[in-house]
């Protein structure tokens, strides 16, 4: 997988060429009258640029993106793109938005990156290693939920039993911070957070997170302790012990 490192860096530069420093255009609402799911021309432009770069380098690979769907679904290798994760942060002038790219083989995310252009941070995850701007990144090693720094994007995304489950973990953790989208997983991989819990994630949201967290020595799975991410409920933890404690409360 290390042979993809230069290409990951190139993809980061390609997307940054569209998004970084650009004036933020008005957002369209993909959700219609029933809610608010913003998308801007920066989202679309970054995905078009990423797709063009991948098509030129790997014309037989599949490509799936949040804005433009899937091509070559039969391909064994697929690139999964979220050109701007955290569009709400982007349109509010906050620096926590990221670009997510994952490389899947036979459906499994084996490598990927979380790029935070406004912060100048590129975190690349490969089997057995994760780097932040070229330097090795490692999780904190936190073993106890009572000492854990917890994060989630938005507490209002949890409803009913899921809200109750998250609240059990939140009360047991040392502290909780909200609002960082995929950047929270990069912070976990760098040792600054210990636990991230989310729900309602789509494949383009979680695929790049898996190799980044695992490459830094962390654990990432679903709320039942397995690896079925498709329902969209994700737990990432610095250690297996911390993961098990969180899952025990979430699945109770």
From TrEMBL:
Task: List the keywords (alphabetical).
Answer: Hydrolase, Magnesium, Metal-binding
InterPro entries associated with the record? Inositol_monoP_superfamily (IPR051090), Inositol_monophosphatase-like (IPR000760)
Q: What class of enzyme is it?
A: hydrolase
Q: Which domain of life is it from?
A: Bacteria
Needs which cofactor? Answer: Mg(2+)
Q: Which GO terms describe its molecular function?
A: inositol monophosphate phosphatase activity; metal ion binding
Binding annotation for Mg(2+)? 66, 82, 85, 205
Biological process per Gene Ontology, one example term: L-histidine biosynthetic process
Enzyme Commission numbers on file: 3.1.3.25
The keyword Metal-binding belongs to this UniProt entry's keyword annotation: yes
Family indicated by similarity: Belongs to the inositol monophosphatase superfamily.
Q: What is this protein called?
A: Myo-inositol-1(Or 4)-monophosphatase
The opening ranks of the lineage are: Bacteria, Pseudomonadati, Pseudomonadota, Alphaproteobacteria, Sphingomonadales
